[in-house]
Amino acid sequence: MSRWSTLTTVIALLSIPATAHADSPFNGFSIGGNVGLAKNQAKNPISGVDTGTVKKNGKEFRGFVGYDTLAGDNFVVGGELGLATAGPTVTWSNDEYSYRADPKLAIDASLRAGILVTDNALIYGRVGYANASVKTSLTTPSNSDVASNSKRKGGVLFGGGVEFAVSDSLSLRGEILKKDLGKIDSKQLLFGAALRF
Known about the structure:
Elements: H1 3-23, E1 28-42, E2 55-70, E3 75-84, E4 90-93, E5 98-116, E6 121-139, E7 145-165, E8 170-180, E9 184-196
Antiparallel strand pairs: 1-2, 1-9, 2-3, 3-5, 4-5, 5-6, 6-7, 7-8, 8-9
């Protein structure tokens, strides 16, 4: 076999996985949204006061844009940017104090990696950074303002999920996330859909 024939054969073989990657539903840009439940828990709400566990369950809404690509035959890597509601307001009170932590709009950036268990089903893990503005206030029964502040703080985001491609342009997902939002830890169970391009 000539060198030219050998070279063309190698190029043809290398082009097969590249074509498969291009046809995968988990290759390219995506935009979508999630809805679900969030459990927000305040961290050390009142210094020197034993408040016990201060938490609240509520709803969470999140929109996202992302990009995925295949690395190998069944390994997917990608990145995602998100904008979310940051979950419910957390409150606590006793005879002396009333505490309130009100999270506002949250942003996040994360990387994800996963394995295709079938051509259309992906199991993945996610790690990144989340940041939210959390307004905290501490008042007395007479509504005297003891302390209050509003700051953007954040920390690590991590979790995992499953995504299923209904078609080349639509996928459904379910995931569990944990976000450090400074004064609040947020645990979330989310379900959503993504349009893929």
